[in-house]
Amino acid sequence: MSSIKKLAGQTLWYGVPTIAVRFLGYALNILLFWWYEPSSTAGITQIYAAIPFLNILFTYGLETSYFRFIQDHDKTKVFNTFLTSTIITTVLFTGFLLWQAQAVAGLIDFADHPEYIRWMAWILFFDTLSVIPFAKLRQEGRPRMYAFIKASGIVVNVLLVLFFIGTCPKLYRENPESIWLSFYNPLIGIGYYIIANVVASIFTLLLLTKEFRGFRFAFDFALWKTVMKYSYPLIIVGLGGMINEMLSRLVYTRVLDLPRKEELHQLGIFGANYKVAVLITIFIQVFKMGAEPFFFNQSKEENAPRTYARVMKFFVIACAFMWLAIVVNLPIIMRFAYGSNAAAYGEGISIVPILAMGSVFLGIYYNLSVWYKLTNKTLTGAWITLAGAAITILLNIWWIPLFGYTGSAWATFACYAFMMIISYQLGQKHYRIPYASKKLIAYLVIVTLLYLIHQLFVYFLPQLWLGTAFGLLLLGVFAWFILLVERKEFQKMPVIGKYIK
């Protein structure tokens, strides 16, 4: 239990800034949804769908590889080689994006705003240079410093967005000669959302300056070749994962044959509801931050498989509870998130349960992927992800014209379900882990049935307060059931264990 306690502690510290990032990001998105109609936010949706794709190319699996190779190679040599490689490729990739900004803008169907691509390039530049220093903090078990730097960047981002998008437009209307408007251009408008991110990324890199001490521009080519053999399948995994997660929004207007305004309207609705659906990925990302180095560090322990199985159990329980909490409170979330535009954005609220369960499957897949990372079978992981990407592409092209964003939501669900199942089957052959599979499937089925019961209840009694109260009751029933079934496990947990008899 001590190992799981350590993972929980590190996950908490990694989680504080990650949760803050996502929730403040949601808060900023909420402001955009309150201030702008769906078609106006479509450009931001496209840019922030493209960034994760490019992040994979910019980092090319070096973060995960760092945790793998730091275990049995000289730490200084690994750090210098990885960071040198990152600096060289980041400069080249960023230069290419700046040069081809107009072409890239046209590729994502936003040729009117090539400046968005240039600003995005600088976000990628500074964020990529921060990757290895952040990995160093995680590998050395310094989550507090990690949390401080991440949180500081968040604060800068939020303040700048509130100033340029929330304050400056009003100030420009009332006092256009104000000194506070010296750096403000009203024509940029919602583009300041991206500019604020650029400044925050610069600020974050400056806070990491101490982690660059001792760095020498040195490159061990033999080590780098070995690393690339390990990491190039991770690039495929990452790109495939981003195709599965982001492709639907990038191609949405391409596969529809509707008036431009209607396409942008639907894309804005889809992007907004996707953000609500992936609230659950906040926990998944938090968990992943602590779990990745933890899994590698635990791999040499004799009882590692049992530890991985217990981690999976707690993970699925947490995801199931969060999924149920989101889907039974959708009316409240919709009113809070969309404000006066709730009717417009709320058209697509029905896709949230589908996408959220897909996110649960993705989180389980991340847990399962430990087998191919520990056995150096990353190429197999790449093939799984490519198969998932093929499913995503084909189903989106087929279903979006027929069912709109609902079809895209089901495509995401099908893709992640496939990846989860196939990874489990292969993993049990190559690195057997004693997962409580039947029990975990039962938990997911139970929360789905509770959601359907809730839907039936609100169909006959549509009052908001009654639906909310019944939803809380169902959450309590599920929590009681889990405590009853897993009582012995929870008794061993720190802090809460002493309260469970």
From TrEMBL:
Keywords associated with the record: Cell membrane, Membrane, Transmembrane, Transmembrane helix
Keyword Acetylation annotated: no
PANTHER family named in the record: O-ANTIGEN TRANSPORTER-RELATED (PTHR30250:SF11), PST FAMILY PREDICTED COLANIC ACID TRANSPORTER (PTHR30250)
Lineage: Bacteria, Pseudomonadati, Bacteroidota, Chitinophagia, Chitinophagales
Main location as per UniProt: membrane
Membrane topology type: Multi-pass membrane protein
Transmembrane segments: 12-35, 47-66, 78-99, 119-135, 147-167, 187-209, 230-252, 272-291, 311-337, 349-368, 380-401, 407-428, 440-458, 464-485
InterPro entries for this protein: Poly_Biosynth_Transport, Polysacc_synth
Record has S-adenosyl-L-methionine as a keyword: no
Subcellular location: Cell membrane
Name this protein carries in UniProt: O-antigen/teichoic acid export membrane protein
Pfam family, one: Polysacc_synt
CC annotations in GO: plasma membrane
